[in-house]
Amino acid sequence: MMKESQLEIIKKILLRLSLLDGFYKQKFEGIDLKSIQSQEDFQKLPFTDKSELRKAYPLGLQAVADSEIVRIHSSSGTTGTPVIIPYTQKDIADWAKMFKLCYETAGLTNLDRVHITPGYGLWTAGIGFQAGAELLGAMVIPMGPGNTDKQIQMMMDLKSTVLCATSSYALLLAEEIYKRKVKERIHLTKGIIGSERWGEKMRRRIANELGVQLFDIYGLTEIYGPGIAMSCPEECGMHYWDEYVYFEIIDQNTGELVPEGEMGELVITTLQKEGAPLIRYRTHDLTRFLPGDCACGLNYPRIDTILGRTDDMIKVRGVNIYPGQVDEMLREVEGASCEYQVMIDHLNGKDIVTLFFETENNVDKKGIEQNIRQHCKSRIGITVVPKAVSIGELPRSEKKATRIFDNRY
Ligand code: ZN
After folding, report:
1. Are residues 361 and 387 in the same domain?
2. Of residues 174, 229, 237, 230, the one with CA closest to residue 206
3. 230 in the same domain as 304
4. What is the distance in A from the centroid of ligand 1 to the CA of 166?
5. Which of 310, 268, 267 shows the shortest CA–CA distance to 286?
6. Residues 117 and 150 in one domain
């Protein structure tokens, strides 16, 4: 439900945008923005998609005078033209405030030492983690990604208490710390993990091997960056900061809102952004609203942990598969680790799904494979060829890990 205060803000934003030339004028051509007076009216506005943002390259999204812009960030251009997001002084300050709120939600204080491994530069990750930690008054250790030797050395020497990382890099560090037998020299108590979805099993391994409590942080470059939502010690979904962002969850095919509590695609409207406000931006992230109050007492609404991306969804023999389902399924199979890769090939007129997964060395691999075959059939509805490999055989990455490879086309 849209709050009255959110509606008032949105009406003001639309009024401002209606006076601007360029991106927004084009986008809302033929729509009388002054006629938007309720949540229902708002829901008739068109969505914004990443392809439109790409077409606005480089600075077509800019919604204030040049003198107001203090920085840009950009999404990676691996799948085409990058998206450039301009930020004003207030945008940067708001982002840091949200990030501080994230850290406070995880129980950090100004005595914490925050070890930041996400990248710096055009990417929004590193600098956001840093700004929020500094605003909190904690000590920042701005490592950036890579150089595992140095990461572990600094972690020991500076007694880092909080690790900020992607889930795959956190796992890589956890494994290195275990291999080097230096766990007792590590002072981490919390891990803040962002930017890709990860299964329960991986979570448990990282938490156990590092001896930390883990938190999920959510965000995307188009909307500030990480820091717009965060899990709390109750570990049930993520709170989001609804004075800054308005969330809707839609059916990805029809564009209609899904009934409360059902899974769908997250759509975000910015409420405070000046440099590049976005209206009904399709994130392609799959989640759902969690009803009721959280036991942590925080008075902010919640979404569930991200289940996957609508574009990661792969159709095999008429069945939709999300990476999240594979994670969940592996969690139920004793002896299987959280690292996996799915290969989909087209052979002799048939789609063949091969699922590689890691297991400990001294287990009954054939038995576990059999178990996985049954679980895939009953839980996901597909037949797979399970292939057990040893722990460490599948690639680890410092960036977002791709786990499903579709080789059919
Ligand atoms: Zn909570």
Report:
1. yes
2. 174
3. yes
4. 22
5. 310
6. yes
